[in-house]
Every structure is written in C-alpha cells, then in structure tokens.
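Render this sequence as a predicted structure.
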Amino acid sequence: MPDPVLDRGEPIAVRDPALVFHDGACHMFHTVARPAGKAFSLGIDVAVSRDLRSWTTRTVFDPSPQNLSSPGSIIRAGGSWIMCLQSYPIDPGATWGNESARLWLSSSVDLVRWSAPQPVQPDGAMVSWSPSHRQIDPFIIAHAGRWWCFYKTAGQLGLLLSDDLATWREASPDRPVFGTADTPDGCTVENPCVVPCDRGFALVFSPCREGRGIGIAYSDDLLRWRDVRYLDLPPLPWAPGGPTAAMVVDRRREDGSWLMAFHGDRPTPGNAHGAAIALLRSPDLEHWS
C-alpha cells in the first residue's frame, strides 16, 4: 500500500479524511486546500477505492467564500446519507477562519449528489465556557435514540444533542466535554472522532501542538472521558509536521482490524498548509501499524 495513499502534490493539500464503506467501496471524503494569499481556499472532494490503493476523485463542494470543509462522520438517517461539515470564512488579509464559522448538514441518496448544506446551529456555540460562538470540526454519532454532535470552539470540545437532526441543543452548556483539563499536557484539541468499542466509546482527537499527534480517550456516556493518552504511531518521514485529524472506523468483522485515516502535515515552499492522507491499522485501538 502506498504511504501516503492520497497525495495531490504541490500546491494542493488533502486534509481531514472522513471514511464511509458502502457496496464494497471506501468513500474518503476530505478537505482540499489551495493557497490563496496569506490563507487558503477550501472545498470538499471524495476519493473512492475498492482496494485502498488506487483512488478515483471527484468534487463534492467547490471552493467558495464559505470555504466548506472538514467533513465529519457520514451517517444513515431516514433512508439518506447525512454528512456533517463546517464553513470556514476567512477575512481578506487574515490567515484563519473568522467568528462566523459554523456547522452544517448535507444529505445524499447515493453518496454522489449532495444537497445544499443547511445550518445546524445558526447562532453558533451557546455555552458559558467559551467566549467564542465559532463552531468547527463536527462529528455526529447515534446513541440512546438521539444524535450527538461533537464540535470544537475555543480550543475545546462542545456537544450538541438532537432527536431529529433538525433541532439542536447544547448537551454540556456549563463545561467542555473534553478539553485542556483532560489532555496529558494541557494543550487544546480539535478534530473529534467517536466510535463505539468494547470499552464503551472511544474518542480519537488531535492535540494542537508542534508535531501534532493523535490522542485517545474512553467513555460510557459521551460526557465524561477517562484513560486519556497520546498514541504511539509509526514514524512518518513524508510528514515532518506530524499526524493529525484522524478518523477511525471499525473493520473488525471484515478484516479483523480498526482502520484509521489521517492527514500528515507536510509544508512545502508552495503551500505552508500542505498535507497528504495515509492509513493505519490496529487490532485494539491502541497499537497502530
């Protein structure tokens, strides 16, 4: 298997992979970033493969001022596929997204044609613990007959709750469900991915630090997390900036392993935000190769 498995080459960066397996194929939705002045323009593509080696790519959302990006989980609801994603508008002359960044949902019946995204919470984060209303990096999971949407604001993770994917409320308005008080070194976090496992639920997250990395934690209720640590991952000579933005899917019934997709930061002279996507496997969520 090539390492990385998806690399568009300078100056295009591929980031934030989100995997869904359907009809014998792996659909890898991902952010596509291109340099634009001091910042970048963003869109979403999908790469499809039947062997995890060769991929065909098509565009899902073109670059636009909204900078639609960071696809999270792709879930099934009401006979449709639902993708959660973010908008990331960047002011002229700025480097990063502004306060209007929000979460969105788009639907599809075939994983090919997607509806115009609809906002999840137009007013943004409504919590006492964050001075910012900005919301990015969504991830939705079903639990106890409801939908739970993790997101990042102010460097920590919030959590929305819905019965119907239409009306949302804050599940933890008074404290982050995971953040600087939980990480081993007190750093901020982003890119949550939550999967059911033998220990309840596993949260796979990215610390915001030099050299990046991937962390893991466990929970029984999605609100309180334990056994937090950073994973020991194989060296990535092609990604000097380190691994980040991991998504994990359970493939134990198919081939006996968990599959992780992530992007490795690889700045180049033509793109300070360069990145490519690679895959890892694990028998137990703890040991990756």
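Summary. The chain has one domain: 13-282. The two ends are 12 Å apart (CA to CA).
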